[in-house]
């Protein structure tokens, strides 16, 4: 169940839209299914006395607006302030069963209670209504003013608490379990971004920029190189600096992606993904900068991946062992590097993306294994690009060295997926499984095929199998 909250100022406009036909006549039979006072369907607006006049929304709007009037709140936007009209939409996943109005009414009350907006036993809380005009979702409109004191209030951490309540509802009703509010998901493109990209025949700018920023971060070691890398790739970059000149953050834009005024649309790193903010990138660069490059980066990468896998395996046996989250994050950097060297593997890094990030508020610091993976990943990218520029290779797959490294990475990614699952991080584990599938398919298509065994090898294999059967029989006694 996906929930989304926006705040506004005009409860009348919101109710008129929800009870109306919609922008493209998509609202079918809009109806009130739940309300603050338990009257529910009794608040359903009646059709006007004049034919063709539509529904009479006045009684519902006046009732919802009354606490705000008592508090002296205006129905207009105020610069720099958040509106007191709380609008939450809740949608089930495609393929989920159609819920009844009664079930949706229960969902609305549970979401309001879970978000801290309107408690089940709080008679003096805010006024709210739940409106349904489609099979797969509802809308909840609430005025954030208490009825008993006429005081405006703000629910604390309502977005995060909504996700917890939604996960609880999904399990109770047998719906598709969506991501928990652990802060590991990258920010998905909004509807406007998706529609604009569709009109332009391109993928959303946010998705492209996240990929470009991650690639630039893996290939560089400081802010200067990072900015130069993005600009060389054709992107617009701005760095925000403190009065002392120290970099504080950055924003990046895709050329041609403009807002209504014709200016470029910039995204900060933290809005692209939780681990792409400049402070986090600088910490990773500082750690990876300590140490020397290897004369044979492909072999060094394979060895480091093997050691990292052993460390994750040890972490599975000893849950208190630190450093596995950092290894998971560094594995994302290694997959990004391998994707640059072997274009057929670029999707693996994107699919692994969520598995690479620790949950929100879980403090991690770069460790020995993660730092080694990042350093050799950077060297792989730099060596590969230099070789392509010099014409030594054509940019295709690098051959047996890549096959050996990808095989090692496959084992590491599977180990990380198992580690994530054992800690109840289902979505991170699922991301690792998808990435492992990408690596496995690439290996199956790329690795050299073995020659069929000769007669002697076949006889030896059959004898080994027969001996195994005899051993099992002895054990069973």
Outline the structure in words.
There is one protein chain. By secondary structure, the chain is of the alpha+beta class. The chain folds into 3 domains: about 1-175, BirA Bifunctional Protein, domain 2, CATH 3.30.930; about 190-275, no CATH class; about 290-445, no CATH class. The protein contains 16 helices and 8 strands. It has helices at about 10-20, 60-70, 100-115, 160-175, 190-200, 205-220, 225-230, 270, 280-290, 295-315, 325-340, 345-350, 370-390, 400-420, 425-445, 455-475; strands at about 1-10, 30-35, 85-90, 125-130, 135-145, 235-240, 245-260, 265-270. Strands 1-3-5-4-2 form a 5-stranded antiparallel β-sheet, sandwiched between helices. It has a 3-stranded antiparallel β-sheet with strand order 6-7-8. α3 runs antiparallel to α4 (about 160-175), α6 packs across α7 and α6 packs across α11. The longest helix is centred in the last third of the chain and has 23 residues, at about 400-420.
